[in-house]
């Protein structure tokens, strides 16, 4: 696998201005990290100023973009109140923005109304029969389950010893927590079986063919690692791949605890988790955390040492993927080209549209760096997760302190699907691809619009590369996939 390209040269030293005070727990973040954060903030301000001066201020409202919608959950009493994150980059020469108004055309975009959480449920674990990998016995794809890579299939597995974990009768805490999962968190896939599989997975029950009635082992723990984003980045592929690891237990559905369900409390959250044995890592993925203003602070209050994983993808492709998902549910929405602009003649991008806003990674990351040092965050390339899943999984396993168990031998490239799929585990279980809602064909987008979006994102991408020390090379890609 090709190594990451060298990070860009460090930014110039900042002028002697006061840096924001560190939050509790930020002591882990050394002076260089704080300096970098400060420089990033400053650079973002300058970038934003430039955009404003060029006439884009009406479109790009960072302070608004990073706010959680009204109706956000209350803080839990036990956690000491962490400091408020510092204000977003100042809009020099511009008055303070008014309270965040919802985009006037949010309904026509297929977005939820303003009182709703801003992002759609990302869970889409529909399954499709996989193409057989070379040498695979015929029929190996039959009986695929509904969650992610079809790990709900029968047939047992190398992990059955610890995966035969349907909810024991009387496991009421879990049952209660699961029944409390709001309907909107059901997978996007349409069948009740899909939903059931997702809920089973969230239950910590056997989503890989464990024998019914076999008792669950271990205890439910709050997660030690989270996949916090980004929506349409490849988070499902990553979660399903890491779940192959015997030392990982993960929730199949997205709990949305730190954005939508926070008021339910930590015990609810714990009960959503599967049972784990000592030494196993408990995980969940909810991609909307990355763009939820309160998420870093809340997660820090729960576990300041938690490991965070962000799967990032070219923000232009990500936006189109996001739009494609919405379009699949609401075919009547305007075209991508229409939604992407505030004023197409003037070339003003509408950064208040969530499909665009989510891709301004540097701004969202800035919020996380108020609470977590960079060393606690792993950035996975969504592009490399497709072309070299084993390589990205090696980094993920290293980051989680796990033995490299998930390797090349767990993947094969499915030509029909056009994506890597999970090969059978060592125990003869069936190969699995992600469902139809993963790896959709995108609508054709006007190349000029793509070009404009690339120009729009470029400074933010550069800043993101500087902040993370990784060059994701999105500027080298041309157009959509
Ligand atoms: N192995 C494999 N199979 C299928 N799809 C894969 C895979 N690896 C990454 N991807 C890319 O994942 C994109 C969906 O991202 P997410 O899983 O994060 O979406 S979601 O936010 O949970 O809805 C999805 O986006 P679209 O291609 O736009 O559908 C894929 O490009």
UniProtKB/TrEMBL annotation:
Pfam families: Sulfotransfer_1. Its EC number is 2.8.2.-. Residues 138-158 have a biased composition (Gly residues). GO terms for molecular function: [heparan sulfate]-glucosamine 3-sulfotransferase activity. InterPro entries: NST/OST, P-loop_NTPase, Sulfotransferase_dom. Residues 59-74, 165-177 have a biased composition (Low complexity). SUPFAM superfamilies: P-loop containing nucleoside triphosphate hydrolases. The keyword 4Fe-4S does not apply. Transmembrane segments: none annotated. 3'-phosphoadenylyl sulfate binds at residues 232-236, 313, 321, 438-442. The active site is at residue 232. Residues 117-130 have a biased composition (Acidic residues). Disulfide bonds join 421-433. It comes from the Eukaryota. Keywords: Disulfide bond, Glycoprotein, Transferase. Residues 223-458 form the Sulfotransferase domain. Residues 1-25, 75-116 have a biased composition (Pro residues). Residues 1-32, 57-220 are annotated as: Disordered. Belongs to the sulfotransferase 1 family. This is Sulfotransferase.
